[in-house]
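To close the chapter, one final illustration. This time we ask the reader to focus less on the individual chains and more on the assembly as a whole: which components sit near each other, and how the overall shape emerges from the parts.
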Amino acid sequence: MTKIKAGIINVTGYAGIELARLLYRHPMVELCSVSGRSAAGQKIADVFPHAADIRLSIDADVKDVDVAFSAMPHKASAEVILPLFKKGVKIVDISADFRLKDAGDYPKWYDFTHPAADLLQQAVYGLPEFHRSDIANAVLVANPGCYPTGALLALGPAVKAGIVHPDIIIDSKSGVSGAGRSLNLTTHFCEAVDSVSAYALKGHRHFPEIVQELHGLNAGLDLSVTFLPHLIPMTRGILSTCYAQVKDGALKSGGGELMELYRDFYKDEPFVRVVSSPPGTKHTWGSNLCLIHPYFDNDSGRIIIISAIDNLVKGAAGQAIQNMNIMMGWPETTGLEALPVYP
Amino acid sequence: MTKIKAGIINVTGYAGIELARLLYRHPMVELCSVSGRSAAGQKIADVFPHAADIRLSIDADVKDVDVAFSAMPHKASAEVILPLFKKGVKIVDISADFRLKDAGDYPKWYDFTHPAADLLQQAVYGLPEFHRSDIANAVLVANPGCYPTGALLALGPAVKAGIVHPDIIIDSKSGVSGAGRSLNLTTHFCEAVDSVSAYALKGHRHFPEIVQELHGLNAGLDLSVTFLPHLIPMTRGILSTCYAQVKDGALKSGGGELMELYRDFYKDEPFVRVVSSPPGTKHTWGSNLCLIHPYFDNDSGRIIIISAIDNLVKGAAGQAIQNMNIMMGWPETTGLEALPVYP
Amino acid sequence: MTKIKAGIINVTGYAGIELARLLYRHPMVELCSVSGRSAAGQKIADVFPHAADIRLSIDADVKDVDVAFSAMPHKASAEVILPLFKKGVKIVDISADFRLKDAGDYPKWYDFTHPAADLLQQAVYGLPEFHRSDIANAVLVANPGCYPTGALLALGPAVKAGIVHPDIIIDSKSGVSGAGRSLNLTTHFCEAVDSVSAYALKGHRHFPEIVQELHGLNAGLDLSVTFLPHLIPMTRGILSTCYAQVKDGALKSGGGELMELYRDFYKDEPFVRVVSSPPGTKHTWGSNLCLIHPYFDNDSGRIIIISAIDNLVKGAAGQAIQNMNIMMGWPETTGLEALPVYP
Amino acid sequence: MTKIKAGIINVTGYAGIELARLLYRHPMVELCSVSGRSAAGQKIADVFPHAADIRLSIDADVKDVDVAFSAMPHKASAEVILPLFKKGVKIVDISADFRLKDAGDYPKWYDFTHPAADLLQQAVYGLPEFHRSDIANAVLVANPGCYPTGALLALGPAVKAGIVHPDIIIDSKSGVSGAGRSLNLTTHFCEAVDSVSAYALKGHRHFPEIVQELHGLNAGLDLSVTFLPHLIPMTRGILSTCYAQVKDGALKSGGGELMELYRDFYKDEPFVRVVSSPPGTKHTWGSNLCLIHPYFDNDSGRIIIISAIDNLVKGAAGQAIQNMNIMMGWPETTGLEALPVYP
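The assembled structure is written out below.
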């Protein structure tokens, strides 16, 4: 069986090298080209000792690939993707550049005018649990942000079923790798360790993506979402705690009904597991799993839905490979079967 | 000037030994008796190498003290406090045994029938920012729980001012020391590190305390509170993120008005600091400070109030000493002036 | 191709469940029986959420297996292994029970009289890099301790080549998972985090194993070894820093000669990588790699050899599978090809 | 009683702000001037929220002080100190610029020619346990490096007593704050956490300082020292494990004799505590303590001396204040009496 040729654009960030780790073990793929401007000319082994088995040099650009994964920052990603797209290369873009359908959101949230607004409708938002069939037919998949992945999987069933009021609060807790590999004081060990803090109170860039997709599930809800991310002293993982008020008349049978709604919604999903006790992010470390615990509090009439993911896998590189698998018609779990590393 | 004699009941837990650390440097107090059943007969230096300068042996009981701090577990605390109380010893109880005014809450939340229900009204809830004058006249002060301290200081001004709807969500993140020094799998290093999880979804024991005190601030609000604690891989610190919807007509001038409300409420408080950016728990490490950041989101009409404390200091031992200072008529900051240890 | 049936004795510790994680993805093995007294009757998913894909119940004993891995504590391991051994089951024992050739070492170091001293000569010390051909013919392999694995791989080439004086110092730094999953104050999060300490100054049980194997490499050296382990606030990993004085006349050409000696010694080894800069344990996380950096200090005439492993993989479960692969005649890397998880 | 005026040069690094934390509570000192080029014009509260109680602005230079602490990098420190020295300001220099007596060491180890070589003999190496009386008479004190402080206190008694052979190995483990507050990949949270590594194998700048001072204790020993530092995933603390061979005839009575030698050497020292079990760095967190555990291994004839300090206190800011106290003739513990913060 012939393997397809895959390339990673910007392998030198955490999402990029995580793609390399996973693709290296993918049975249908040959990772044959990786790029990264800051390290161009170096071997992967020199920059990433853990990945020395991948005997590739880092180039300025990827070339001659059937599928390309972009882990570039926003704006730069669109620029490098467009020529590949025109050549017919299948693309999974880990940046935000093709996630939002409304081109007007880019100047507002990302400070740039989108260079290919016409492609926004053609690109598919790559959350397989919501858009599997569109992904299967896509050439350009916009891989969801790490926070949206956890929040949408947590809220999706409740929002789609219309059992909640539109006031939704998402309190997310992320490990430090979500802030990337570049240097700033926030991610200095001595500043990040032994501390928790909230950030982006004035609005996080993942906000419009969450709203867009929740709206897509249930256009009738006049959503009022608050999304607040927190930085946690750990490397990987996002825990999203989502709160919403249940509509009168919904969940009459109580928490069991909620649990059943969730189990049913995700019953065929290979990577989403509805669990009966609150999950720890540690139990997803290194894997593409999303653990979800739905809870209904009778006294307050509120539901609490908690999801746990590894932000670099289901929140980035793993989901990108899941999307590629779907695009290629392969079994969705190919190359993603390893269990989380615990403890 | 004669120092008063102080004792610590159950010095062998984290709150107990933190009391010892702080009292050792208190200029008006001589720490002269500490108890701890599991380590009775041992010297403090043998159990706690960092505190070897405190040249005391751990006894089975404290004796001959003017003021006693109890760091016993609930139920046991009331039992050991009552005889001291009858002898006229001033008491600060770090357990929950005298926090709740309704004796019926004890069987419900703590699984025991209160042995001195008549004292519940006499005991004063020791949150100085809310009950300073009562504390000054009290003989028995019930030191607040760690979560309630952070949550109440965050929500107090808004609730008292009546600017919010009664639906309140408190999403708290606590370091592991809050779970105590006894052994269980949850606090095993390898289980707690690199992970975040929620717990006590069915109701945490600090819940009734939060509701009681918020109700005390504004009896007109028909509160519906959700309080959810999370375990974070760090030793000290609680960050509480509180969400509430603003009433129509309130905060017409926007976030500045909210900030002013908070600054005004806490303007004379020595330990509460209203800050203009989201605080990290690290910036309170080892100190009695509470940092509060109030934020108003115009789009959703929601306020987000974030507070950061050190759970072992303002959430336990430091606040207990603050209470003693008030009870004794001393300057409130006596013995609590040290800056946080950073980084 | 028929898979062989494998069982794990005592799956409920960290080494046991790590075996399960790795065996689950081994293409030649069906993990069909796991035991663990403390959790007998429970499903793996209930005890280890990360491993829920392994749909097995935990039994009191393993049964009907072709190969058994024992992750029992010492003494108990020998007891449970012996009947299986008599039935012809191939065994990899992760405990210390068959590592030492001198039965007299067991009362001295492990406080018990060995129940099958005659088997000690028959058992093979399972460090493939030293004993590959014996392992290939063995029925009972004694998997090395985590510290000996790192120390022996670091020191082996220099000791065998006879370039060093017999005074050797091994200063090892281990993550907390090496202390196991059972509860004690040392592994409480709040005690282990933010701290480093040495332990076992009077002699660690891995000491005789290190001496035995170094002696086996070069019986002419009258070894005087000091081995001192330290506990480090991280979950996985052992870094061993080894110091020895170079004999007069050796390494005349300097550090390059040392590097060449090491590269040559390990040139065909799939899991040992001689690296040109000091390794971090993080770069082995979750993998069977051993990274070794040999350094020669001309001024002092001393060599410093540093090795990094993941104590639960190359130091336990991974090496056990490597041993099984050799015993079965399979490619040695089967099931162990995944890259480390970084960051 | 009139307080003296103190200033901190370069308050914006970890040692500088730690000086501020400690000086703020020093009863004989008024901290009245702090400098820091990168943050000049900002308030301390803006850069360091934990230290908001210190109501000072950060200036370009310190002025009008009786005593100045320099936390500048090497070379820059000498340049800024010299004019102050000429004005008669007492100086404690935390940089390396006046630690080495041989001016030729500066080009070799620090890549610059010393601008005031004549002052090197006049400056006093500020390890009070070795040079107390000289410090008392000094105007310029060179505060020891963090590693030398721990290593020298560990080895001092044995080297001075001449009981060891001159081959000495110092294996040190340091928290990340030792690497400073400036940004580089090594101190990125995701790179430093969950990992241990050695560095500076080719020679660390603290090496000549260690050798100079050990030589000063016992000029008859022809020392051959290996010093190897390691980076540990924690914020504060250095553990130094020191190995040396005992001379024939020494320590005939065994480990008790070694313990007695150490207890006697340090019997009047306020900050050095000889302890009977291996110390954890955590037990010095935030304090000026040095915990030392001397151990004699009869079998190998080797001693192992372990010391634990907080690198930012006894290894930097605390020792600087201890030195000032001695220079001023105050009780040596003034302002340094607080217990370590545990856990």
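Chain B has a mean pLDDT of 97. The interface with chain C takes residues 14, 176-177, 181, 183-185, 187-190, 192-194, 233-235 of chain B (CB under 8 Å). With these observations in hand, you are ready for the problems at the end of the chapter.
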